[in-house]
Amino acid sequence: MTVKIITDSCCDIPLDLANELNITIVPVHIHFGTKDYLDGIDIIPNEFFKMIASSESFPTTSQPSVGQFIEEFKNSDNPDGILSLHVSSKVSGTFNAAKQASDQSNLSGPINIIDSLQVSITQGFAVMRAAAAAAAGKNLHEVSNIVQETCNRATMFGLIDTVDYLVKGGRLSKTAGLIGSLLNIKPIIVTRNGEVVQYAKTRSF
């Protein structure tokens, strides 16, 4: 056996790659109106973007349930242990749900729940490094140290192509959104201390 790696779908690792690397992904919930979808299972990114473009309602998300985590932890229980690495606790309740589940699972092997303080691909990169370390035979303590170092050094930058969805989601006022669209402003965001914040504003013509 090797250390088992578990994460959530905020890591943005494709399922086929996750399966190849022996990573278990617990899906977050995406809500469109009254419908609940499991991220990466009931709905994939291309479908999500089509729905968000055509839907009158704006989607919301919620963390996996404690029960989802308990099921995965019990399925992955082994003497070498489990490392469960999750999206920043400052943007989601996922880490707290995983922590509660670990306290309730009564596992025979050790488990370490880590708050990555990262989102998206920087979280995913740390998860893939964890999987590589586990596959190389590193123990739980060693894998945890590699993950923590990776998370501490990582920073993600992103360019928001349109401010329309910031307005729909209530992150930006309609007036500011209109001005942003007219001036073709594209915000650059960055992860900082576990939060996603604005880094700069650029204009594209």
From TrEMBL:
Keywords: Lipid-binding. The keyword Cytoplasm does not apply. Pfam families: DegV. The keyword Transcription regulation does not apply. PROSITE patterns: DEGV (PS51482). GO terms for molecular function: lipid binding. Signal peptide: none annotated. This is DegV family protein.
